[in-house]
Please model this.
Amino acid sequence: MESSAGPRRLAVLGHPVGHSRSPAMQTAALEALGLAGEWSYEAIDVAPDGFGDLVLSLPAAGFAGANVTVPHKGAALAVADELSEVAREIGAANTLAFEDGVVHAYNTDAAGLLAALPESPRERRALVLGAGGAARAVVWALLREGAEVEVWNRTALRSRNLCDELGGAAVEDPDAAAYDLILNTTAVGLAGEDAFAELPLARGDLREGQVLVDLVYGDSPSTLLAAAAEAGAETVDGIEVLVQQGAESLRLWTGREPPIEAMREAARRG
Ligand code: ATR
Model:
């Protein structure tokens, strides 16, 4: 982008998008970098049938890029001219960048997850719960990093299909205590469901030495993370993953080192 292009706008595109913490987090990041005068970040609610046209109109409206969230991560691939290898393999993009009339699509969810983990999952046994869009980035990232990945899903056909495509092994009755890492990518917990009733886990399976990741986030720790912390496991919540994927997106757009602490603080404030 040329500096004569004026303010560089950024946005998160979703439906709904009002709950997103990305505007607060990315605005705090731009302020911390001293870029808030030139750059801005907003939320745009767009329904699926208007997504493609909206994206194509953004460069002319002064946008340098966008984050893409539910339900548009697949559509973001379809509208892009150039796909990163990661976005293509995962089959979803959460970041778009507009440059000289070209729409580039990236996926920073995978790198964001790895950055959020307390240590490399290399040669660790990982159990991924869920087989939706969020699970795809998680499975891809863990396999890429050299973890041994097993995938459980309520609907077993979906986990089998995911593993056929990306790798890893589908499991129907996992012994959760045996894993070094357990990652919840399902929607369980979002509406207050009891994770121990809906997922193949018991409180007694959680232990010291394990890492529990729950992509669900709210104002307080999920039931799953609270139980994991009580059992002495390490925990990573969805906000930390959000911060790390947002940091990777910011790096792509601005080329600057992301101010992680300012982003974390703003994302946690909500
Ligand atoms: P996302 O893109 O966020 O992953 P998704 O593709 O709708 O969203 O996937 C939601 C995931 O949550 C799926 O793995 C879904 O399981 P099914 O494939 O069986 O539908 C899982 N999920 C949602 N509600 C669940 C519940 N009550 N118990 C177990 N899994 C649930």
